[in-house]
Amino acid sequence: MIKGLRLLSTLLTPKVNSKERIQTALQGIRDLLPAGGGHCVACLAPDARYGLCNPCRQDLPVNRWHCRCCALPLAFAGNETLCGQCLQAPPPFSRVIAPWRYRFPVDGMIQRYKYNGQRAFARPLINDLADHLIATLDTTPELRPDLLLASPMHPARRRKRGFNQAADIAEQISKRSGIPWTTELVTRNRHTHPQRGLNREQRLANLRGIYDVTGTPPPRIAIVDDVVTTGATARSLAEVLLGAGATDVQIWALARTPG
Ligand SMILES: [Zn+2]
Ligand SMILES: [Zn+2]
């Protein structure tokens, strides 16, 4: 059972103590393993798949009931339902696939990955997302996109953070699914204020005109990101891609926030 996410970070923090250093090195090696094995990142149980044991995996908040277009979590059963926002203003993308809800412990796992570069926390989520996508494409091959596009990050923010988590996720989904990926097709032409803390209208205004398409998009694209929040980024990106000739844009992400 997941009680907290502190255990692994104590292993990952470099300490003068040599035992700690060895454990850190071992964890680094485990992170490089492509699949299976390793200890659970949440409870350190030895029998883990992609770094998460089964009991901890069962504690993850699955986004079971959701809007069939934007994957907004719904409080009631029915995945053929559209949320109020999608009914009122149909989004330019065709669907969002996001297997988890952005709440404990998925929120903490993604934050450690994104802001602290602790990839071990994202490994089970990314691989489980890949499993889910591969199973979905097996039953509905018409959903298969021609290209995965990592949600673009402004170069200044990328330098500050050290990596673009969306590119990292896209690369791993590409390896597992065989669908090519890129970061090149769309650029972010200016730095925006962080989206956190802004409401939906403010986010849309914040993003207006910030994306340039630099090539010819293939017909079918899946934009890959870590979290879909209000969907403002997804809407802006999908709009520019459709404007440049794409015919179908999906969003693939690890998690969806409740609103
Ligand atoms: Zn566990
Ligand atoms: Zn919706």
From TrEMBL:
InterPro entries noted in UniProt: ComF/GntX_DNA_util-trans, PRTase-like, PRTase_dom
Secretion signal span: none
Superkingdom of this protein's organism: Bacteria
Similarity annotation: Belongs to the ComF/GntX family.
Protein name: ComF family protein
